[in-house]
Amino acid sequence: MNAPQKVVIVTGASQGIGAEVVRAFRKLNYRIVATSRNIKSSDDPDVLTVAGDIGDPATAQRVISEAITQFGRIDSLVNNAGIYIGKPFTENTIEDYNAVMNVNMAGFYHITKLAIAEMEKYGSGHVVTVTGSVENSISGANTALAALTKGGLNAVTRALAIEYAKQGIRINAVAPGVTKTPMHNKEHYAMLGALHPLGRMGEANEVASAIVFLDSAEFITGEILHVDGGQSAGR
After folding, report:
1. How many domains does the chain have?
2. How far apart are CA 160 and CA 168, in angstroms?
3. Beta bridge pairs of residue 8
């Protein structure tokens, strides 16, 4: 008997790293539930798209429900949705704070809680979260809100890995450096690339490859895999 196709949910899936993650998993014949605010429908019968604000618990519930209805299972969750606001800390507004917390933290919380509850029914599953290489700050980079949220996600990755290890559910994270996505203007690529010891920005497909690796690495849990050109090691 052939093994059933695995099913992965990808948040922030319409562009950048998320779109590359969708492509990478489809090459492995996974079925995909792809969600973002403005995602368009797909012609691929194995790609189900769900539009909505991932910080809204109703969106998270809809993504999980439609995944089960359409594909019958959830094997993996990729928490990729995230935003970055790079202002000096004292210039951030309450609107900035709420926006970052809504996507980066609430977006993680609502869907991860629901996905793990489904995975517990089968005693297996994998959650991987795209966080950030935030351990070493860069003077002038104004990364406080990113460090607040992405650092928290790195910490909760380890906590959940221990909490759910005995249930057969693995929890990992990928921590990219500055990566070529629509978030960054091309005229800044040289400057941003110089922040990394390898002397260049990361590519979205390199982050996607790390996520796919962790999904297949069945003895790895609680890992924060840095895909940052050496940034976390030092400068």
Report:
1. 1
2. 12
3. 32, 76
